[in-house]
């Protein structure tokens, strides 16, 4: 069966012979010209003079001295005309959305050559709202509901602004066009209208052959009629209606399943058909998944729809950098928030960023855009990239440079929030074209690229209502009734265009498979396209119905052991060498909790994420503030004997306690190291946490008052001891010396402050410290406190006891923070040190034993809170 373009090619050759150099073939888009040229060469069987191939847009633009202006520049210019005509001081930030909508209305009005004065006169009269007799009950109700959404004050203001716009819309239209014309510029509709009404227009070619135009706008019809009167127009329209021989409807539960179905649908016959086989994407977001799902047997493929710039690495980096500048800067601290810096640091291109990329916060749009351009330039010259990355870097640089030029010239003057939205919008609209031979291989295309083309095999993906027809709306300053009366584009017209594309694609096709998403999740409606329903109801085409189901079974959580290779042991040895600080009780506790967690953290060096929101005091920061405040408060005493009067003075005044807490908040929450820097203002939750921490510090002082006199030997004191080829140790929150009230003897306490509410019970024996089953009982607290106490006992000649001071429980009478084994407090670590160090040595040897693999924990509760849980799945 001949394709439409083969019919066109045959007629062109019969009309004009093989010299088509004086003929212009006009298409709605460029794609079909490549296929028509191939048809001409094939049918002629010898070299010919090809015609000129132009798009309808090229035809209009080539006959005007005006240039179509940049879309951003057009909205900015429209804003100037708006303020001039209405007298409103609406900022460009607030106007931008309106401006895009108003520009779309002007463009549509001109392309349909509607009488502007009459349209705007009607519009002005309608929106005076004095006489609404012409409106239907439904329209009157919609207006009442619209204005009732605002308070009385805002109602009046809103009406005033809208009425100002509607009553001056004709003036805005005229002033805008005059201003652009004075600069030799125009928007597309104005340029088209100027060409269509130019009586002195001269046409260069002997004949203009218009191929595949349907549902034309008025400017196109006027130009076509003029060429027809001059005997220079030939029209080719595909009016043949022949339904597909084989039609299959397939429902799928996800978009991803549809993409995976491509490899099954591409049978050897369809692959062999090459360019006569098309995969059409109603949802172009499927492009990446579809390309990845093409089977290896497909040697040639032509992708006609562009790759979305939004899905490229450089676009995500630019978005993150803008977010960093706009959202990530804390005015309180005068620095970028760590969360936003961390997002940028995890980007694949982060290593290519200049070292000082986050040195300055830019509040000026021009400076911020120059900063972005410098970063993109630096990245472009730093490494070798794939062709896609290279092209995307070029595209994003061009886009940013265009916006920067408008900002530098003063044309675009908006706040940073609006600029952020604008750049994101431009990125979403941009795409990267694929290069190749379009006339060869399987065609992967969007709906618009199918115009005028015929295929033997078609797979239509994601053919849902909302995709086919594409989500059309009637958002406009011009009501439907006026649009309809003056021949402007309506929703009906937009739907009709897509209906034509749909049915045009199906005719002459041997077999058609249409897949739609039947899921109602993730914003999907689960509805097949209305055009599919029409085929079912209005035609006798036999349709086969099928359903796609996921073929794989969900996999259970089955973490696997990891062998200790020579490289792993080498990494462990280096990681825990003396030069790197040795091994810590925290590392051993992680090993006891889960050996795979230990591997990911200390061998793979994957840092646990910090999910804390900026300026939020979570449990970790709360504890850090308390520790820092306690250290600051007690440092003033040095190692002198602390008496009851010393602590009474602290409690009576309260100023030193508050000052210590404030210093801790500045350092731990706001990361301010300068003690003279003023405290940033606190929000409600921060003030509440501040008061709680002050209460806890006062409670600590009250507890200590009962111990007086005592001596503090160290705060945040580092202790360590050699252990084989490495060393082991850490930091003690507080080391003090107290007098035992029962024996009258002095002993030293290794104290770890705890601000949580869950106080651990005593462990049954020393062996339980190294038993993973007791991790839930906080055996890791015992591991650390016993270790530090053992190290301190080698430096002191007095008994050393490991202690956990839980502030929330310490106010009770007779409270003793000393840890217990069984029911007995460990007042002297030497009593259990031999067995403890023996078991500790066994555990460290186990960690470095190459014959023992890292095995996963069997504690499901531990997995639920593990930051590496996703890595353990097969």
Provide the descriptors you would attach to this structure in a database record.
874 residues, alpha/beta, 7-stranded parallel β-sheet, 5-stranded mixed β-sheet, 32 helices, elongated
Describe this structure in words.
By secondary structure, this protein is of the alpha/beta class. Helix content is 46%, strand content 13%. The protein is built from 32 helices and 24 strands. A hairpin with a 4-residue loop joins strand 11 (329-330) and strand 12 (335-336). The relative contact order is 0.08.
Structural class: alpha/beta
Biggest sheet: strands side by side, in what order?
A: 9-14-8-15-16-7-17
Mean pLDDT: 88
In whole angstroms, the N-to-C terminal distance is 51 Å
Total number of strands: 24
Number of helices: 32
Q: Major β-sheet, in short?
A: 7 strands, parallel
- Structural shape: elongated
- Integer-rounded radius of gyration: 38 Å
**Low-pLDDT segments, ≥5 res:** 128-132, 145-155
Q: How much β-strand is present in the residues?
A: 5-15%
Please give the share of residues in helix: 40-55%
Could you write a compact summary of the structure shown?
This protein is of the alpha/beta class. Helices cover 46% and strands 13% of the residues.
